[in-house]
Amino acid sequence: MPNAGVRAHPVVHWTEGGENRCARWLSESAAPPASGVVIADDRTSADDAYGLACQGTALLWRGDFQNARQMLRALASRADRQLRKPGKSVMSSPAAEVFHLHRRSQSQRARTLGALLVPLEEDYGIPLRRAPDIRQACAQAFGPGEGAAVASLRALLGVIGAHEWRTRGIEIASLGGRIHPHYGVFAPVRSEYVELVAAAPLPALSSLSSLAFDIGTGTGVLAAVLARRGLGRVVATDSDPRALTCARENLERLGLTQQVQVVQADLFPEGRAALVLCNPPWLPARPSSPLERGIYDPDSRMLQGFLDALGAHLEPGGEGWLILSDLAEHLGLRTRSQLLAAFEVAGLRVVGRSDMRPRHPRVFEATDPLHTARAAEVTSLWRLAVR
């Protein structure tokens, strides 16, 4: 039986060997633990596992770890086959309906694949044959271990992938260096928005002594680009502790801590700046997990908050740079007229705009239900000033 400390966390319960057991439940998405859990191992068939997962029963794996990975692939194949059955296509539906149906099906797929569970020891070791050592990756993602735990294999593979990104880093040409994203912090794998910031003309009043704000800095990549472009002082803000730690570490690696200050704030720091930059989540929808907060902005709260307060934080003659994809427009989630109206209501005018088409692989995936919208997408840097 686990120690009493496990009760401070969500707990998953199961019966094994005739005994009732429980362990701490690890879930970044805040999904509740399954109410029904059965033991599975190398003898469990993929069809049986898929049937149980679809019914909401989780499978706690006690077999070989590499066989668990094969089982996860088998579950994914069956889930994808189900989505491709006749009657599942929504390609002819309105764009917004396609988007919402796609998210719903992806959510169902995630629940099904998330039903395959793996045990973890107190230090995040995996007590299974041929299991990798993921202790450092889990400690980076979840903090110090606090007793035996259980997590979905799919989530743990995400932790491993994030650890590899953090270790290897992402080369950013305009920085002449690498950015190392932390788990849970949006990674700059799409280069177009970084390139737009690196190339846009700086406001006329900017100089080596000018101050810039980077709102919602994330990894710190855009604050670093501004510093490399000669802005003498940059204040980078974020409200997420993971992002603040990530940005500080990246700026230290790049040797930019004298130019860039990272502070915790909900959007704006105090004062005014010659340049205020913001790259909010691009889609006005509700994230289903903390990891999606870099993509989805419920009711456009961050976008609207930035626009409404921008004028009060700009120096006379300064500019606000808004980086925004028009994917939401192609998905029927926001119109261009609504965006322009938001500028006007906030007392802002457009003084320039730079556009770039994305080059990421999903643009070319014709089987993607959102392909039509992705193929038409343009990312823009809007240069805004007070009217």
Word description of this protein:
The chain starts with 10 loop residues before the first strand and ends with a strand. The chain has two domains: 4-165, no CATH class; 170-386, Rossmann fold, CATH 3.40.50.150. Helix 1 packs across helix 2 and helix 2 runs antiparallel to helix 3 (95-113). It is an alpha/beta fold and 387 residues long. The strands form three sheets. Strands 11-10-9-12-13-15-14 form a seven-stranded mixed beta sheet, with helices on both faces. Strands 1-2-6-5-4-3 form a six-stranded mixed beta sheet. It has a two-stranded antiparallel sheet with strand order 7-8. It has helices at residues 46-54, 65-83, 95-113, 135-142, 153-168, 192-199, 221-228, 241-253, 301-310, 327-330, 336-345, 371-376; strands at residues 11-16, 19-26, 36-40, 57-61, 116-120, 149-152, 170-172, 177-179, 211-215, 233-238, 260-264, 273-278, 314-325, 348-356, 379-386. It has twelve helices and 15 strands. The chain is globular, with a radius of gyration of 23 Å.
